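Components:
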Amino acid sequence: MSWTDERIAMLKKMWEGGATASQIAEELGGVSRNAVIGKAHRLGLKSRPSPVKANDKKKPAAKKPAAKAAPAKKDAAPAKPAAKAETKPAASAEPAAQGSGKPASSAASQQADAGPKAAPVQMDQQNLPKIVSVGPGGFLRQGPGDQQAPIPPAPPRRLVPAKPSPEIADKTSLLDLSDKVCRWPMGHPGEPDFHFCGQQVNPGFPYCVEHCGRAYQAQLPRGSRKPPPPLPFGGPRVR
DNA sequence: CCCTGATTCGC
DNA sequence: GCGAATCAGG
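Structure:
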């Protein structure tokens, strides 16, 4: 697989959106988690709340000199790493049946990218796992503190009907996203029919009125673990 | 164990 | 430029 513009765009979107490298790799398909990370770095998108980089030593000089040069090839290592528990190399799950055209409405799951600054959902990288509502894929969103009013969705006004705007007669692709259109994902990235809602947004929200209703449903805490990323792209994919 | 991202380095 | 191997923290 090569890094086409689309794939790179997808990578950026997801990476910036908070999706993990694994999720990105899985959605892109045909690439490993490492490939995604490597590419991300080469693209300059680096650093994000990395679990392994929590420490802020004033002396960054602390590297792994001894462990570096040698480990690459285990030169004189007497015993090889018995535990080569490398997780399965993401088998590219390409949609085999394309001709049948599956309904994308099955289950919207992915994220919808970082919304406008005014978006009710804050994208704080260090935010606390306060979960109270569910987003696109069923993943949980942040707490009320980050969400302002629970739901000021659509007051009165004549709201955009369910008919698509003329400007978005066709599918709204990843690259067509803007502050004006609903970013609710339809289907999954990487799939042939993946696109975004594209409706006119509910002013102040990243989604249209209809999807705001789905995005901001309150859901009280439960046994639900999984702090969820701010804007998880690879939401619980329905498989 | 699992997960995460970071880094290195041979290709 | 790419990504597997590896490292290292949670």
